[in-house]
Amino acid sequence: MIALKNICCGYGKKEVLKDISFSIPKAKFTCLLGKNGVGKTTLFKTILGLLPAMRGEILYDGMNSTAFSAKEFAQFISYVPQAHGTPFPFTVLDVVLMGQYAHSKSIFENPRSSNVEIAVNCIQTLGIEKLMHKNFSKISGGEKQMVLIARAMAQQPKFIAMDEPTSNLDMGNQVRVMQLTRLLTQNGYGVIMNTHSPQQAMQYADKVVLLNNGTVSHKGNPEDVLHAHTVTDLYNTPMEIVEAFTSFGDKRRVLITV
Questions:
Q1: N or C: which end of the chain has fewer CB within 10 A?
Q2: 48: Cβ–Cβ under 8 A, 6 or more apart, which residues?
Q3: Are 116 and 95 in contact (CB under 8 A)?
Q4: Between the CA of residue 189 and those of 62, 180, 185, 245, what are the distances in Å?
Q5: pLDDT tens by residue, 182-237
Q6: Is the pLDDT confidence value at 98 over 70?
Q7: What 3-state DSSP class applies to 76?
Q8: Cβ partners under 8 Å of residue 20, min gap 6
Q9: Helix residue spans in 108-255 (DSSP H)
């Protein structure tokens, strides 16, 4: 488990978030929600150890980040950024293999057969074998996002942090990426995702954390936390949540603006 205890974070002397306390459990999907500029990215950087906390502490399975070497920390948590290109003609397999650097003696070490096997297994788990030998820069945005998730899996961490993984994707690819988050938790990974979509949180998350006015306003199970008044207050836009049924008879909660 990752436990944040009274965290204050920001840049220099500028405090962006204060008194942040919540946990990220193993094998569960935690969703971080908040409007633009509230500090989601700042908090992400702090959790990933890229930005030191101004106050408070973060415990990773009960230990401070200072107890880990850089390689050990990379084996504990990996990062999925928003999809991006690369100026180099890496194949998809090359990109996924980069996740195994956390388990290599040097980034200049040639991949061993065991490294390649792990990378291929991650690609196969996500069902993207047809992309394996394609140029990463020439595949679609949705495909790139899936490859970056495979790379994070190849890092063999306990937790995966995903920064707005569905931004700039069409609806079909958004659904595919969100379904992959459930697959990750089923495979034992703890996942924390930063998103602008409360609908995604309602449908897929095990836990939600709402950031508002520089701190945590609500946290817990989506059904307990995500209601019309909390979402309206979070985004300062009138919203309602209605119940709808799929063609299979499954009941879903759906967010609408009013």
A1: C
A2: 77, 79, 161
A3: no
A4: 17, 11, 5, 30
A5: 889 999 999 999 988 899 999 999 999 999 999 999 999 999 999 999 999 999 99
A6: yes
A7: helix
A8: 4, 6, 7, 8, 9, 43, 56, 215, 216
A9: 113-125, 141-154, 171-186, 198-204, 222-225, 228-235
Which DSSP letter does residue 177 get?
A: H
pLDDT digits (tens, 9 = 90+) for 20-73: 999 999 999 999 999 988 999 899 999 999 999 999 999 999 998 888 888 889
Contacts of 155 (CB under 8 A, 6+ apart): 74, 75, 78, 99, 100, 102
Residue type (1 letter), 77: I
Query: Comparing C-alpha atoms, which of 146, 150, 132, 130 is closest to residue 83?
Result: 146
Select from 126, 113, 182, 192 the least CA-distant residue to 153: 126
Task: Please tell me the predicted confidence (pLDDT) of residue 104.
Answer: 73
CA distance 119 to 197: 30
Confidence of residue 112 (pLDDT cuts 50, 70, 90): confident
Output 113 or 46, whichever has higher pLDDT: 46
Residue labelled with tokens 């759906």: 254
Largest CA distance in the chain: 57
Ramachandran angles phi, psi of 157, nearest 5°: -90, 180
Whether 154 has a pLDDT exceeding 80, the answer reads yes
What average pLDDT does range 68-79 have in this prediction? 90
- Burial of 25 by CB count in 10 Å (0-12 exposed, 13-18 middle, 19+ buried)? middle
